[in-house]
Specification:
The complex is a heterodimer of chains A (114) and B (108).
Chain A: E1 5-7, E2 10-13, E3 19-24, E4 31-37, E5 44-50, E6 53-56, E7 65-68, E8 75-79, E9 88-95, E10 104-105, E11 109-113
Parallel strand pairs in A: 2-11
Antiparallel strand pairs in A: 1-3, 3-8, 4-5, 4-9, 5-6, 7-8, 9-10, 9-11
Chain B: E1 2-5, E2 9-13, E3 18-26, E4 29-37, E5 44-49, E6 53-57, E7 60-65, E8 70-75, E9 84-92, E10 95-98, E11 102-107
The chains are: A mainly beta (114), B mainly beta (108).
Chain lengths: 114, 108
């Protein structure tokens, strides 16, 4: 069956531009997570949704980062006024369970801010 | 807070056995995951330990000691395709707290 998909796979933005990254989770998955992975590092938690409710956004690095999942399926991570330090791979993961056990990761969006 | 430590790089020979260690200090610990990540690809699940002891799955085994805050991933009969980054992640609540990953290079 279809896995987690993310689009675009690659995004180049000029500093100061806004970007929107999309995640299509596995159909029916309740939980959705966003992670940020800098080069040579492990993924770092950004935010967690259970259905349409954003239960934890403690990992979002600044108020320029905003995530939504309005209908409990597709999610969008938006970054306003991008900065060079935002350059990273943004990974989305979904889980059929509430909570983080059994997470399936998407291929990620590589964001480069120039 | 969360603190996950694992070696940055390891090299091993095709056909050999390699052990990748991970130590963790984390609140609300619920278990320990190992993921494999090839360059430019998504992390893929390898193993999950919640109780102390060894879990064996084919060529891969994972061990956990909760009292010591320690885990290892054991890879046997190494193949060239095992060259990848191996991520240790402590599971607490719902979030996965990842280490920086161990880059494993398998040489002929």
């Amino acid at each position: 069956g279809a896995g987690v998909s993310q689009s675009p796979r690659y995004k180049v933005a000029k500093r100061g531009q806004d970007v929107a990254l999309r995640c299509d989770p596995i159909s029916g998955h309740v939980s959705l997570f966003w992670y940020q992975q800098a080069l040579g590092q492990g993924p770092e938690f950004l935010t967690y949704f259970q259905n349409e409710a954003q239960l934890d956004k403690s990992g979002l690095p600044s108020d320029r980062f905003f995530a939504e999942r309005p209908e409990g399926s597709v999610s969008t991570l938006k970054i306003q006024r991008t900065q060079q330090e935002d350059s990273a791979v943004y990974l989305c993961a979904s889980s059929p369970r509430t909570g983080g056990y059994e997470q399936y990761f998407g291929p990620g969006t590589r964001l480069t801010v120039t | 807070g969360q603190n996950i430590d694992q070696p940055t790089e390891m090299t091993a020979t095709e056909g050999a056995i390699v052990q990748i260690n991970c130590t963790y200090q984390t609140s609300g610990f619920n278990g320990l995951f190992w993921y494999q990540q090839h360059a430019g690809e998504a992390p893929t699940f390898l193993s999950y330990n919640v109780l102390d002891g060894l879990e064996e799955k084919g060529r891969f085994s994972s061990f956990l000691s909760r009292s010591k805050g320690y885990s290892y991933l054991l890879l046997k009969e190494l193949q060239m395709k095992d060259s990848a980054s191996y991520l240790c992640a402590a599971y607490s609540g719902y979030a996965l707290n990842f280490g920086k990953g161990t880059s494993l290079l398998v040489t002929p």
